[in-house]
Design brief:
The protein is mainly β. It is built from two helices and 14 strands, in the order H-E-E-E-E-E-E-E-E-E-E-E-E-E-E-H. It has a seven-stranded antiparallel sheet. The protein has a five-stranded antiparallel sheet with strand order 8-9-12-13-14, with no helix packed on it. A two-stranded antiparallel ribbon has the order 10-11. It is elongated and about 60 Å long. The protein starts with a helix and ends with a helix.
């Protein structure tokens, strides 16, 4: 009966908005949808998200206020200071007039509880700031080689490599096959920019470097490279994951 009820709720939500994907495979961890509700005449998607964050110089003035509810018209219950710690328990997202709005349900060690306004983003700019845009970081599949790899969805993620690298059919070096090779351009810039479409949740240490395996697109080929061989040519976190997005948005640079 519970499964039938959940299906009906999800169906009504999809047909009513058409904005949020409902695949929602997070194995009951961070990202799992816990509620789809209507609040202030807007439809909200509430997801589980457990994370402890220290407030730093990346937080804006509007990030420093804790409200009674996820609305700036609700009562302010606390004003944060630099170095305060918050315990995030949920992420709320909605889409209004071509803008995404993201709120965090937070608690503090002093028993203050409420909602923090994380940000308002356009569809284009928000791709790097909305923690669960289009089910970012959902579980796609599991791959078994010498170990079990949990494969997660990556969105709008690019990395740069400066050397020739093997592209493998699966993550890992053992029990995998090289299917192609990344080669440096003969003319012009020696860097190669790659789109990352998936990544392993688990990391591996190779030559003293601990990193994830990344599924990339290169010259029409999709395959896996070790993330420790790749860099990013920008500021901010190396990978846009829900946890790193929130930590970078509220913490210290």
């Amino acid at each position: 009966m519970k499964k039938i009820t959940y299906f009906i709720v999800v169906f009504l939500w999809i047909t009513g908005t058409g904005l949020f994907s409902q695949t929602n495979n997070y194995n009951n961890g961070n990202g799992t949808i816990v509620e789809l509700k209507k609040f202030n005449n807007q439809k909200w998607e509430i997801r589980k998200h457990i994370q402890r964050v220290q407030i730093g110089d990346m937080a804006n003035k509007y990030n420093m206020l804790i409200y009674e509810n996820h609305s700036q018209q609700s009562k302010i219950v606390y004003e944060l200071k630099l170095d305060d710690y918050i315990n995030v328990s949920q992420v709320a997202q909605t889409y209004i007039d071509e803008q995404f709005y993201v709120w965090l349900k937070v608690g503090m060690d002093n028993n203050i509880n409420g909602w923090l306004f994380f940000g308002e983003y356009s569809s284009n700019y928000g791709r790097y700031h909305i923690p669960y845009l289009n089910n970012r970081w959902e579980i796609i599949e599991y791959i078994k080689t010498t170990r079990k790899w949990t494969i997660r969805r990556m969105l709008f993620q690019w990395v740069t490599v400066w050397e020739e690298l093997d592209i493998r059919n699966k993550p890992g070096i053992i029990n995998t096959t090289v299917i192609s090779k990344i080669v440096r351009p003969k003319d012009g810039d020696s860097q190669v920019n790659l789109e990352v479409i998936e990544a392993t949740e688990e990391t591996e240490t190779i030559d003293d470097c601990n990193d994830r395996w990344l599924k990339i697109r290169y010259n029409g080929i999709e395959g896996w490279i070790f993330g420790g061989d790749a860099n990013v040519q920008r500021g901010g976190p190396k990978y846009y994951l829900p946890e790193t997005i929130i930590d970078f948005g509220l913490g210290y640079y």
